[in-house]
């Protein structure tokens, strides 16, 4: 019986912590963000990351004739069908390791999850880079 009560208490604690985290998120300004636009396409290196991951890698396909110098991207989390900004410790985009993306090339940028204000919880996320975004899942 004690094990059963303990399990119930742990479930309530987990739900409470996730609810507290989600109440601190702000709704993303733009809900519909394409995966590609004007020769720029992004995807995450993995479709699924564990909650314990140290970094998330974004693969950038620059099929345009222009160079890209953006070195950061924002994370957003989907909660009940609505995208919310997932904040980093610093305000604004999370600084990424990477940088210059030459024309007609593929490159990667990554950031370390220790830069996030909250730990990753299971759910749907997207990495938004310039005007495009790549969706991925976080699991236990």
Keywords, separated by commas or semicolons:
140 residues, four-stranded antiparallel β-sheet, Immunoglobulin-like, alpha+beta, seven-stranded mixed β-sheet
Description:
With about 140 residues, the protein is of the alpha+beta class. It contains one helix and eleven strands. A hairpin with a 2-residue loop joins strand 10 (about 125-130) and strand 11 (about 130-140). The strands form two sheets. Strands 1, 4, 6, 7, 8, 10 and 11 form a seven-stranded mixed beta sheet that branches. The model is unreliable at about 5-20 (pLDDT under 50). It has one domain: Immunoglobulin-like (Sandwich), CATH 2.60.40. It has one helix spanning about 1-25; strands at about 25, 35, 40-45, 50, 55-60, 70-80, 80-85, 95, 105-110, 125-130, 130-140. It starts with a helix and ends with a strand.
- Count of individual helical segments: 1
CATH architecture: Sandwich
Mean pLDDT, as a whole number? 82
Amino-to-carboxy terminus distance? 26 Å
CATH topology: Immunoglobulin-like
Summarize the structure.
Residues 1-19 form the signal peptide. Helices cover 16% and strands 41% of the residues.
List the helices and strands and how they pair.
Layout: H1 2-23, E1 26-27, E2 36-37, E3 40-44, E4 48-50, E5 55-62, E6 72-79, E7 82-86, E8 94-95, E9 105-112, E10 123-129, E11 132-139
Parallel strand pairs: 4-11
Antiparallel strand pairs: 1-7, 2-3, 3-5, 5-9, 6-7, 6-8, 6-10, 10-11
């Amino acid at each position: 019986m004690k094990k059963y009560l303990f399990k119930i208490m742990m479930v309530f604690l987990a739900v409470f912590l996730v609810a507290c985290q989600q109440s601190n998120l702000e709704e993303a300004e733009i809900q519909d963000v394409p995966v590609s636009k004007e020769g720029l396409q992004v995807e995450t290196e993995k479709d699924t990351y564990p909650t314990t991951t140290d970094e998330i890698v974004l693969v950038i396909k620059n099929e345009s004739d222009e160079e890209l110098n953006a070195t950061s991207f924002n994370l957003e989390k989907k909660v009940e069908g609505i995208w919310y900004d997932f904040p980093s410790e610093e305000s604004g985009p999370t600084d990424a390791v990477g940088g210059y993306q030459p024309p007609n090339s593929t490159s990667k940028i990554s950031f370390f999850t220790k830069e996030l204000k909250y730990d990753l919880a299971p759910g749907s996320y997207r990495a938004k880079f310039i005007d495009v975004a790549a969706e991925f899942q976080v699991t236990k």
